[in-house]
Every structure is written in C-alpha cells, then in structure tokens.
User: Fold this.
Amino acid sequence: MHGFFYIALFDSDNGKCLIDFKDLTFTKTIYDFDYNKILSDQGISYDDLNNNEEIINLKIELEDLGHSFVYTFVKVEKYHLMVVTDSVYSKLNPLLEKAIIEFDQEIDFDEENQEENQIESEIIENKITSLAIENFSRNFSEYLFPDFLIPERKNNIEKEGEEQEVKQDLNEYLKSKNINQDLFNKIDGTWSIEEFSEEMEIDLNKIHEEFFNMWVNNLIYFRFKYYNWDTLEQTENAKFYLEDGTPENLSLINKYNSAKIIKILQIINSGITFKKLHDQSTITKLRLEKYITELIYRDVIQKRKVIPTIKHISEDLIPLLTLQGFTKNDFQLLEYLEENFRNEKDLGEVALKIQIDPKRIRDIISKVETAISVMN
Assistant:
C-alpha cells in the first residue's frame, strides 16, 4: 500500500460526500479514523477548502496516537476529491487532477442519460460508485499496492462449513460489484500480484484494477510474503487463545478442525524466525503460512520489525561491489536506500514506500556488508 489511508469524492455545491473508500492500508489498521472529523477538530471546514482554487496539501499530526496525515484536496466545478496519505508524494497532484477531470467528464455524460431515462436515485448512487471505482483503479491502483504483495480474502467473507445458499449469496454479491469471480476464486494466499498476472496471463494493469475493486469493497487485504528472516512473536492476545476451552481457543481449533494451529502458536512463544518455525513444525509450508496469516489477522502474533543500517559506501568499495554483480540500477537503489533508512525505519515500511521487494533490499544490504568485511 503506497501510503493511502482515505479517498473521498464530494459534491462541491453542498459538501456532501458522494463516495469514500476507508481503511486503504495494505492490511488491517487498529484505528477507525474519521478523517473528516479530524479536519473539523483542527478548525478546518469544508468551506475553507472549497473557497481555495489551488491544490491544497495539509499535514495534520495526532500526537496522542503517534500518527500524521497529509490531506490533498483538488477540485473541479462540480466535484472535489480528497486523499489522505502518510506523506506528500510528488506524483500525486497531477494524478488527482487527471482523476477528477476524467470523473467530471464521465459523470456529466452519464447524468445526461439519467435525465433522459429518469433513473431512480439509488441507481444513480450505484453508478457514481461504479464510475469512481473504475476511475480510481485506473489512476491510482498501480501506486497503491506493489506487485510483490500477496492478496488474501478477508476472514469474514466466507464461513467454514457454509451452506450452498450462502455461496450463492456471495456469488451474487460479487456479480453486483463487477468482481472478476474467476480471479477472486483463485485467491488462496499463495500468489503475489505479479504471479497472478503471469499465471493467469492477464495484463498487470488490469490485475491492479481488479484487485483495487475487491479491495475497496472490503473483500481482500494484502500481506507480505513470509521470508526466512521474519521473526514472529506472540502479542498480549495470545493468552486467550492458549488457554484450553476458551471461545478464542475453540474458534481456531474448530475453524481448522485441528489443534495444530495452537501448537504453532505455542512454538512461536516470545519469538522465532519463520525458517526455524518451518523446520520445527510437521506441516507443509503452505499450511504454516495459512496459520500464520490467521494468527496475524487476529492480532495474536506479529512480525518483529526489521530495521537495517545502511552505511555510506566509499569509492574503494565500488570495484568490489561491481565484481559481486552490482549493476547501475543496484548502485542507484543503494543511494535511495541510504536516503530512506537515515532514521530508524522498518524494512517493510520502506519496501512499501519505494515499491521494492524486501528480498532485493536485503540482498543489496548483504552484499554491501560482505564487501565492507572483505575490505576490513
């Protein structure tokens, strides 16, 4: 997820929110922020924004929660588009302008047809939603989630042991939201976005659009791959699942018809790498990944942050790194990493920001460390 938290489209005449997309993090957030209330609590009204003809960038810091948000606000005559991100992105402003202009043209054309056919207001609202999703997916989706992320179905979409009529209801819902059902049915937590494109022979841009549609309709979330170096540890919630017979404990056992997931939770304890956990477990890697995903989703375990140190390379190291296979792009990436890791930052956080697979970042850092040790 490329730093987006919230996207909203407003009617410029009355400030009414026509459509908004919340919780646009690549995984779940622990806070349910009211982004419009945050604005009003800062003394900023819709009229203040509406009366400004320029693109607006506002940074708001919530010190008590340790969060900061950047509000970007752009408008055309009839509509306003507001996006909340984690920082200012240089490419965002022209994208927002392009999106709102295209939407204005698309909705104007559609309103003419609606007036001629006297379509009911509910259908009009659905059309606005559909147009907004098509527009935003076309303009933003490639920036929202990097190709190395893995889509996962949300736990509340399907129930274990569901009856056929529930499946039918889900199929009808997917159809009503123009969801690609073939693509949705293949989501099992094993393929990254890029792998979906390759395996299904679907253009990557189209894959992004399809997943964006599922994402904003709250059907899926995204996660990183599990790497051998990932260290998993229990959270405070683990105690409720480890006690025999509690509702939490039984919910996990009943869902998977096995107590093996509880055993995995016990092994994780205060910290263990994914590789060691896999070596110690008696289940397949795919099953282990499903258990880990379930436990992370329930906030029973978490991945420990990885905070690398990037050292500035001297001119003496360049020939040695070149011998190790460093390319021009690798050296450029190293400079970028040095800039982005100046403060203590998590590997995953930076990987999302610069849209580079964490494995490649780790490989670059490892080669540099090896070169430094050889020189010393």
Q: What stands out?
A: The chain has a mean pLDDT of 83. The first helix runs from residue 35 to 41. The chain has four domains: 4-115, 150-159+166-226, 231-304, 326-375. The chain has 17 helices and ten strands.
